[in-house]
Predict the 3D structure of the following.
Amino acid sequence: MSLKKKISMTVNGEAVSAEIDPRRHLVDFLREDLFLKGPHLGCEQGACGACTVKVNGQIIRGCLFLAVQADGSIVETIEGATKSGALEDLQNAFMRHNAMQCGFCSSGMLLAAAELIEKQPHATRAQVREWISGNYCRCTGYHSIVNAIVDVLSARANA
């Protein structure tokens, strides 16, 4: 016998309500119920960062966060951040520097980079590397990702 829990939240600016299994992870709810495919399931242990989303303005690992924990919260995925235009300069820099290859890590990497830029707008290259170290990328070797983020930090500082 499964006891469903009613939840409500705002996802990418839209009110959402559902009845779900209380043990369902947020990333599964977003992907399977809301068809938001930006957050990915990678390691399912919170180590790779592919499932990264924002809850109430802070990035979290969606594979470790239960959907019931987001009840009453504001959730933002890469789709919402892209639609709002908040990541446009970062996305363009990732493209220019070939920092998006297979794309599996990109949504989590972009959200982590955006949080870094917001919290540490004068971050050094070493601080950028440290900040994104919790997001795995198997394609780029990180050099191009760091270059893209540093470019955006520099452009915003000179704007």
